User: What shape does this take?
Amino acid sequence: MSNPHLEAASSLYDDAAALLSDLIAFPSTVGNEGPAMRYMHERMREVADEVEFVEVTEAIKDDPDYSYPVVTQYGDRPNVRAVRKGTGGGKSVILNTHLDVVPPSSGHVDPFNARHEDGIIYGRGACDAKGQATTIWLLFRLLDALDIQLAGDLIAHIVIEEEIGGNGSVRMARYGDTADACVVLEPTNFVLLPQVRGAVWFDATVYGQAGHSGMPGGTVSALLKAIDIVRIFTEYHDRILAESRGKYPLFDQFENPMPLTVGQLEAGDWPAQAPRRANLKGVLGLLPDRTKEQVMAEMEAAVRDSGDPWLADEKNFEIEFTYRHDANVIEPDHPLVLALQDAARTVGRDGDVSAMTASCDAWLYNNQLEIPTVVFGPGTLGVAHSDREQIPVQEMLDAAAALATFMDGFCR
Assistant: This one.
């Protein structure tokens, strides 16, 4: 079955490749998104009825959902909000994606110089998530090209700081937009993800009693205590994962849908000295049967109640949580899922439905704004954050056509 939206999208190939290449050229790591946002603002003005900057100020740091694993300053790094006005009376949709990118990978050659080979664009942010922002632009352009008049509004939120916890989307969640559905664009390889795990990032410090290696009875190694904490966190992870089984079939298909990752452990000043201080940082995923507040409290309690009197003492162990997301869930047979699935199939995609074992900004729309939300987009997460990051141009065209098909039916 032919899809007129897909046929029209094919004529936008060169425009899609050019826009994404331009976006990749901006090194929009956290704190440096301003130029990319200003460029996207100008490009959205070509295709949207309303376009505005939504400033993110220092006041965001007072929001209870503010995340801060990277210290940043605000000002001159706005979000972009773009609207295609409906004729009235129909359902509205919010699209969300981000322009911040992670720093270049080790050995990544010319990460901000897009390379276009055999229909594929390579470069930092190609799929995560500048290819998604390009898809949004293509969608607006496609609706104009086909003269599709939606009854409901189409609203795009293009944000900063998704990679460090979603502070840009926190700002948009406070903006006041409402809608009947939200699609968060991330590289899902066209798989629909109506259920997304949450996460908490932790920064834990343990203090010991420093001393000479020849006096083991008079020392307490903070490093060894930190290793004990890793074991305690691992046991806690295993317990709550087991308790979740059978509650959420989309997550049950994965061996470990909520991994514990300890990414940093620092301790010591000298090889022959028991270190006084050790610091460990990492992230623990969480599933919908627990809130982020429960997990944070239980992680600390697991250490305090481990039976180790040294760790039970408040002066010897402290923990801070810097990135805090709840999981979010709508059912696989929700009308939003079924409508988007049908649209994906019209462009030749399978429309599979699964759960997301990473976290993203979807929970702010789904849980806090009570807007049914699905994560969906072109590209694959398997190459994101790597020196092989890439996206096929045709996938962006297919995604724009699928979204146009979805909007054409849903926003009535």
